[in-house]
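In response to the reviewer comment on reproducibility (Comment 2.3), we provide here a single inverse folding case reported in full, input and output, so that an independent group could reproduce the run without further information from us. The structure tokens appear first.
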């Protein structure tokens, strides 16, 4: 099946056409290991784990190479060591294992390669030397900086111009910079900080150079997909492109970015008291499968809202499904074609989840076999071993709030009016958008006694409200 992915670099979907036919290579920016992974970190992991699983399903496990790095040399790590008095290597070893354990708990497969930045410093030094030789970097006061204006396409990925970025900057420019936009490739290290010998003195690499060097060493000068959160688009990914291409490497064909995560409709922050690590939720008794399912319920290119209601609904779905999936081992050959089709259309996980509900509603043996297999490709164990069925409420979370019912009814009224007026273009657009977050308008009927015809109702109420606002 053809896989279509949205490329940030072209602002459009494009067909995945592997550089090496039959094999796919992917690099995703990983964590800086100084603390527990929070929910926002986890969203990127779940998104690209889902892509990894789809690629393995389509091309075969041995045909996909997935690289995700660990940044284990960074000023945040140095600060944590200074605060605690612990050795830096102890901190990074501990937090790296925390990350792996927590991501495994939410169903993430380990990538094929998980390089640590400290193991590739000589490769970074070599790339920096190449950039200096080609006139794209310069040494100054123990630092090496990249000449941003030496790369004509700088800002193209993020849609920014260099002059506009300078005009909007409010930072003090270091005296050793030739241009305010130049960024650090290498910086000096004091005796109490990690450091390596280099032609420019003892020091350590800047953040951006590490991914360029590791991607080149592990995937070659050109690879298929580069991913990460959209907060990395600028400056990190912009700088990666500049230094890699100026070093003579074609770098990535497709750039993918996931949107950010909120908690109960607000930006996650410690000051608001809504900041959660994955471990916080796990320790509170929220199973990893629920965390994963809630994250998959929103398309990766849209803001995702973690709410207690969504977690309760996910638990209710799993409780109902388990009653029909006992003793059904997932068979990869039974994965539902509609789910693969949805995932192949730019990872449309909400549509894939809607299809899961259709399989459950069908209830036949073949449909339930497909449900088990399809849950597995989504990274969810269909046996739900953590569920205590005797103490679960299988119908809890399936109802609609009064606001939901009113919004759906209003949207259906608008959609019906457009169809009655034979404005099928706008009507079909509304229906397609609604399907994208799990609501099929063609099946909605509001009965007098309030028992609605959609069973179960599974959709993003945030996206429903946004769609309704757009079409009013």
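Designed residues, in position order:
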């Amino acid at each position: 099946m053809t896989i279509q992915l949205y490329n940030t670099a072209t602002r459009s979907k494009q067909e995945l056409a592997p550089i090496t036919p039959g094999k796919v290579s992917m690099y995703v920016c990983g964590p800086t290991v100084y603390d527990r992974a929070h929910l926002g970190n986890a969203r990127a992991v779940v998104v690209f784990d889902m892509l990894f699983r789809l690629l393995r399903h389509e091309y075969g496990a041995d045909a996909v190479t997935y690289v995700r790095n660990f940044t284990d040399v960074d000023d945040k790590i140095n600060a944590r060591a200074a605060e605690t008095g612990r050795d830096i290597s102890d901190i990074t070893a501990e937090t790296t294992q925390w990350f792996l354990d927590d991501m495994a708990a939410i169903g993430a497969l380990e990538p094929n390669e998980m390089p640590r930045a400290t193991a590739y410093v000589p490769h970074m030094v070599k790339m920096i030397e190449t950039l200096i030789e080609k006139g794209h970097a310069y040494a100054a006061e123990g630092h090496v900086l990249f000449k941003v204006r030496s790369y004509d396409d700088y800002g193209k990925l993020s849609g920014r111009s260099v002059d506009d970025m300078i005009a909007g900057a409010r930072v003090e420019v270091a005296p050793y910079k030739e241009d305010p936009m130049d960024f650090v490739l290498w910086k000096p290290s004091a005796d109490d900080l990690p450091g390596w010998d280099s032609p420019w003195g003892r020091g350590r690499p800047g953040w951006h150079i590490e991914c360029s060097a590791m991607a080149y060493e592990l995937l070659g000068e050109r690879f298929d997909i580069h991913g990460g959160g959209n907060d990395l688009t600028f400056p990190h990914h912009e700088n990666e492109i500049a230094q890699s291409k100026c070093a003579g490497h074609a770098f990535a064909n497709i750039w993918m970015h996931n949107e950010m995560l909120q908690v109960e409709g607000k930006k996650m922050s410690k000051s608001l008291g809504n900041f959660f690590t994955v471990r916080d939720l796990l320790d509170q008794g929220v199973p990893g499968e629920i965390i994963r399912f809630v994250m998959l319920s929103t398309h990766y290119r849209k803001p995702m809202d973690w709410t207690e209601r969504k977690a309760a609904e996910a638990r209710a779905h799993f409780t109902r499904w388990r009653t029909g999936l006992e003793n059904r081992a997932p068979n990869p050959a039974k994965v539902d074609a509609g789910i693969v089709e949805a995932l192949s259309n730019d990872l449309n996980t909400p549509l894939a989840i809607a299809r899961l509900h259709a399989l459950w509603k069908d209830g036949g043996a073949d449909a339930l076999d497909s449900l088990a297999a399809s849950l597995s490709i989504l990274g969810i164990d269909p046996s739900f071993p953590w569920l205590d069925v005797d103490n679960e409420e299988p119908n809890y979370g399936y109802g609609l709030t009064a606001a939901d019912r009113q919004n759906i009814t209003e949207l259906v009224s608008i959609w019906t009016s457009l169809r009655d007026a034979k404005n099928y273009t706008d009507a079909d657009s509304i229906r397609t958008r609604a399907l994208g977050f799990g609501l099929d308008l063609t099946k909605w009927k509001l009965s007098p006694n309030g028992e609605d015809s959609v069973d179960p109702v599974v959709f993003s109420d945030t996206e429903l409200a946004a769609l309704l606002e757009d079409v009013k």
